[in-house]
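## retry 2 of 3
previous attempt timed out at serialization; input unchanged, resubmitting
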Amino acid sequence: MNPAHQAQLEAALQQVTGFIYPNEAELHWSILVVIYPYITGLVAGAFILASLEKVFKVKDLQPTYRLALLTALAFVFVAPIPLQAHLGHPERAFEIFLTPNPSSAMAMFGFVYAWYLMVVLLLEIWFEFREDMVRWRQQSRGLKKLFYWLISLGSRDVSPGAVAFDHKAVYAITILGIPSAFLLHGYVGFIFGSVKANPFWSSVLMPIVFLFSAIVSGISLVLILYYITTLLRRKTLDQKCLNALAAFLFYALIIDLSLESLDFIHRLYESEESIEILAELIFSKLFISLAIVQILLGTIGPLLLLAFALFTGLPNELKRLAFFIAAIFVQVGIFSTRWNVVIGGQLFSKSFRGLTAYKLELGGQEGLLTALGLLILPFIILYVLLKLFPPWDDARTDTKPTEG
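## retry succeeded, writing output
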């Protein structure tokens, strides 16, 4: 063991309470593994929100449809990076394609990810923007014109029949994408829920809880982005769209809270031998991150704020601000949820007789700065995507591209 590793182990052992084996003092999954389910949840949630407009005909959400698609694309590009950085040898990730192992849920993520990115998300965005890319190519010059020609695969047909086919393709791909989005994030909950040796993770409700928390996080993120980008563009916020976003966020939060409460009640009812150490874990190591941040600030607080804004006669200006603040707190709560699951599930001994602690370093491969960089990177990618593929209605003028 190298000196730095030894020092970290000794520091962790100093924070141990009760009895814990030395090899359990150092956590194997770090903050990078926290970021991984957080980002994949945003991808799935944003796509499911987009499907509400395209498949379920919720027309009030139309101003956010394209924004939600591009948001999902920006975050899905970054989704596998935290795991690859955590492994230390990202080139080994290609082994899952060369030597597939169907019995490994984590290994199969590569195939789920490739399917979702290459077949579902990219295809839907291509068909959705194809007509506009033809127009943008005609209006552009130089490298930008060449870019739109390449990305549109040289397409020039904008006849009513071709455009109608685009719409049908988008509809069909969206229907296919809904279960794909569920699979993308649901399998993350499946991985944790199938670890029978860990009573904090082992729950049949874990995949469902992960799915609904993903929906909550995706809706709140798109609400935040729509609010900020509209103000930055000095445009008027669509109040009907914001009301619909807030309503879906409100009801998704209720379902998410109900599922988490049901899971907690089920654990109490079973009262297995691990219940005492889990209670000690929750009321000591995780009290602030779980009780205060996740439940109070990240769930109950936004629920009350959304209910007050939705069902009272607040002026529209105050409503919009309340929706925005609630969505911010929801993001904090969802990230805290991922933290509590990944980190919290590693803080107690397999003997159920002691607790350890997690020390987050500032720098290094799995430090705070790396984590912040991975959280910022999707927004940089999204900024570039919004410049290349503006999703706003005013970017689609009445000027139609000419055929041929």
